[in-house]
User: What shape does this take?
Amino acid sequence: MSAWFETGEDGTEHLAGVSAKLSPKATLVASRRADGQFQANLLSARTTTVLHRVAGRIDTTLADAIIAGGGTRQHADQFAGLFPEDPALAKGGRKGERFDAVIEVVADERGNFLETGDLVFAAFNGKEASGSWYRFTPDDTGLPEFFSRSGIAGDEFLLRDPVRGAEMSSGFGNRMHPITGEMLLHAGIDFRAPTGTPIRAAGSGLVTDMRYGEGYGWFVRIRHERGYETVYAHMSGFAENLTPGRTVMRGDVIGYVGSTGSSTGAHLHYEVLSNGFYVNPQTLALPTGRDLTGNKPVLAAFEAQRDAIDAFRNNAGGSQLFAATTNTARVANAPAP
Ligand SMILES: [Zn+2]
Assistant: This one.
């Protein structure tokens, strides 16, 4: 955060502007206009997205291997989540099992590394699980998901809308506090709905917490498989018979929309955590069970992207040791992250 000042006609110094770096790619600049009002602008660095392959055999854990190859723990967690039939993979996998991952890397105009992006491909050949998954964002929904080679997503894991049909009133991410001007993370998304509207469990899992919290008001926390948790806040009440320690199924009603805690109107504040980290529920690439084969144009777009990823993998060389196979290549017309 930095600030600058200017001397006015009356000789006094006053604040002329402030800037804050929000991420390696974005800087927020607020400066005083001639009329004395402040105007905020978000400046984005020109970036390019390149693909980066990390492939090899597990020696200690999958996460160690992926991190050694330039990925992150989140990539490893997401990779393991794509093969739920092998619960051991989420705990590290078995020595000798083969993996192949492609991640996006964001670089500036000069090709300098800025940050890692999404996992876009995951293949695994292990004792309990095997297969290949391609990340793809269908035009008609705009929601990223992982699809099999033939264009079919895995079974639905978390519902996109725990309040059916509700309007999203606030998204995930940094926002400025209206009073203090401080940048704060809005760690979930808000769905506006009338008090009393049923709230559904986004996925099957165990109710680990349900009580009154100072900010959350009445809330429910559910633990799911693969390290995911969901939180539902500002409820007006809980579903009858719901207790901590109880198992719920995806779609079960767990409570009702309200405005308890720090809330200015009836809405659901919904959070998703992946291994303890807040993640954006809207852009999570979790399976929905969707089959692209019934929609020719969308299927064709998926196949073109799948073939481009496969071509990159073939050019990136064999997959013996990750150190030998961490190649990068520039992506033409990379989709926006
Ligand atoms: Zn909220």
About this structure: The first strand starts at residue 2 and ends at 7.
